[in-house]
Amino acid sequence: MQLAILGIIVVVVVVFIALTIKIVPQQRVGVVERLGKFNRLLTPGLNILIPVIDQVRTYHDLRIQQANVPPQTVITKDNVQVQIDTIIFYQVVGPEEATYGISDYVYGVRNISTATMRQIIGKLELDETLSGREKISSDIRLALDEATEKWGVRIERVEVIDIKPPLDIQEAMDKQMKAERSKRAIVLEAEAAKQDMILRAEGDKQSKILKAEGDKEARIRQAEGLRQAQELEALGQAKAIQAVAEAEKSRIQLISTAGLDERVLAYQSFDALTEISKGAANKVFLPSSAIETLGTLGAIAEVFKASKESK
Questions:
Q1: What is the pLDDT of residue 311?
Q2: What is the rounded CA–CA span in Å between residue 224 and residue 296?
Q3: Among 102, 177, 275, 306, which one is most buried in terms of CB atoms within 10 A?
Q4: C-beta of residue 111 within 8 angstroms of C-beta of residue 65
Q5: Torsion angle in degrees (nearest 10) through CA of 244, 248, 254, 259
Q6: How far is CA 197 from CA 51, 191, 276, in A?
Q7: Which pairs from 28-31 meet CB under 8 Å and 24+ separation?
Q8: What gap in Å lies between CA 23 and CA 38, rounded to an integer?
Q9: How far is the C-alpha of 155 from the C-alpha of 91, rounded, in Å?
């Protein structure tokens, strides 16, 4: 009997301690109600409650969480049905509002996301929808922010995972894409051929210009060389004439310095004629001016006479 009572007391103590002491892990928070009314929040660590009077209504995870929105079939502005998969990242920032503001904020976020997505896609055509994922995600996030602010939930990010048009539309898009790529390939090939022809023509033009400039430069250098050679040759001739003139001038000056006058020169010329007359020629022609000069000396007749006698 005593053991049974002791066991009951131990159980009561354990239950009392369990109801009194609450340990909350990091990034979690508990909502405490006292007699059915919000009292306070349980923060991470050790917390003490009044048994029976205080109760933990719920715990919230304060980490960023994700909620997958089931694939939704929506109609675009040009009446094409597309299926869109999205995922939403959210965080509880107001545990009290998240507890009492809405019964299930995850369900609320999904519904608002679906309704907002239909409104946004209904204003876009198919091409805009396929290329406007970023805009769609941004618009959904802004709409969710306005709705979830009073729920104590903050939408961190909305991602459009996939947009699937109908099968026939996909096939038509594939054909269009292939045709577009073929067109781009043909255009690129034509552009490459054009660039090749332009580059070749430009290269040929540059080659001809360089060759013409080279020929011009060669002719200029050749003419310049010829001109310099002629100038040097003329200069050489001028210097030679000058040297001859200088030599003649010096000879005349030397003769003048030696006192040789016209009669001495005539006598020397006469000696030269005497030597000439000793040669094979039997006649010697003299200029009249020389004869006059020699005549003035009065000796020419005697010289020729002596010459005849010696023969």
A1: 47
A2: 60
A3: 102
A4: no
A5: 170
A6: 93, 10, 89
A7: 28/59, 28/60, 28/61, 28/62, 29/59, 29/60, 29/62, 29/95, 30/56, 30/57, 30/58, 30/59, 30/60, 31/56, 31/57, 31/58, 31/59, 31/60, 31/95, 31/96, 31/99
A8: 19
A9: 7
pLDDT (tens digit, 9 = 90+) per residue, 262-287? 666 666 666 666 666 666 555 555 55
Which residue's entry shows tokens 């519904």? 111
- The predicted model scores a pTM of 0.54
For residue 82, give Cα distances in angstroms to 88, 109, 218.
19, 21, 77
Query: Angle at which helices 288-297 and 262-277 pack, to 10 degrees?
Result: 110
Tokens of 113: 């996301």
Q: Provide mean pLDDT across the span 184-203.
A: 95
Asked if 286 and 259 touch (Cβ cutoff 8 Å), the reply is no
